[in-house]
Amino acid sequence: MAFSGLPIDGIEFYEELTADNSKAFWQANKHRFVEHVKTPMAELAEELADYGPFHMFRPHNDLRFSKNKPPYKTHQGAYGELEGGSGHYIQFSAEGLMTGAGYYAMAKDQLQRFREVIDAQSTGEEIAGIIVEMRRSKYDISAIDQLKTAPRGYPKDHPRIELLRMKGCIAVKNFGAPKWIHGAGTAKRIRDVWVGAQPLTDWLDAHVGPSTLPPDDRPF
User: Fold this and answer.
1) Cα distance between residue 200 and residue 130, in whole Å
2) Beta bridge partner(s), residue 140
3) Nearest one of 130, 133, 134, 142 to 206, comparing CA atoms
4) DSSP state of 71
5) What is the distance in angstroms between the CA of the first residue and the CA of the last residue of the chain?
6) What angle do CA 202, 98, 186 make, to 5 degrees?
7) Would you call 9 exposed, middle or buried from its count of C-beta atoms within 10 A (0-12, 13-18, 19+)?
8) Crossing angle of helices 8-19/23-33, nearest 10°?
């Protein structure tokens, strides 16, 4: 079926899962997840397939290394990566819709290249200017993580220390849950965000590019 919107029933499902993140709730309500979350998100990913193909993340948390993590994720994410290296992400949760574009989590080889071009004056000033414009356009700039201090080999008072500390670089817009996310026009709104983020993704593709490490050595 063609994408027709993200149902309000999906938001209600996640509100209830947040309140009762248990195996019993999941087993009793899995059909709601499939109908109101998984299926429309798959349809949305298909609508945006020129930015993919998209990987739909599993609803279960990995509990092997954390005893305190709830068993089920309270959001559904989908991620696609273009040949140039930039990724595009969609997330649906009780809070509504969030989307972003860029390099959320860089592998070691990408991070090394990223820091080198941030450090260089011409390319560093160029990306700093792009990020200023992104923020003026109401994008949040974030990453999977960041260092508390300067990376090894770089001064703490570097003029672009904020960027050097980041382990990724993605432009994000969090829409929340306005009525329009329940309609087919959602796909166009997401595309508009990704088109608006293209100065950032083009710069990252040109100066960082895809990782050449084996998939198991990549963080995302």
Assistant:
1) 6
2) 172
3) 130
4) S
5) 29
6) 90
7) middle
8) 170
Which residues partner with 92 through β-bridges?
A: 76, 97
- pLDDT at position 13 is 98
Digits of tens for pLDDT over the chain (220 positions)?
799 999 999 999 999 999 999 999 999 999 999 999 999 999 999 999 999 899 999 999 987 777 778 999 999 999 999 999 999 999 999 999 999 999 999 999 999 999 999 999 999 999 999 999 999 999 999 999 999 999 999 999 999 999 999 999 999 999 999 999 999 999 999 999 999 999 999 999 999 999 998 776 666 5
160/186 Cα distance (integer angstroms): 35
- Say how many C-beta atoms besides its own lie within 10 A of residue 100's C-beta: 24
Spatial CA neighbour of 207 closest among 60, 66, 103: 103
Question: What does the alpha-carbon distance between residue 154 and residue 15 come to, in Å, rounded to a whole number?
Answer: 44
Beta partners for residue 55, in sequence order: 79
Coil/strand/helix, residue 166: strand
Distances in whole angstroms, Cα of residue 210 to Cα of each of 56, 81, 110, 138, 140? 20, 9, 7, 27, 23
Could you give the CA distance from residue 72 to residue 32 in angstroms, rounded to a whole number?
14
Cβ atoms of 9 and 40 within 8 Å: the answer is no
Residues whose CB falls within 8 Å of the CB of residue 102, separated by 6 or more in sequence, listed in order: 86, 87, 168, 169, 170, 171, 197, 200, 201, 204
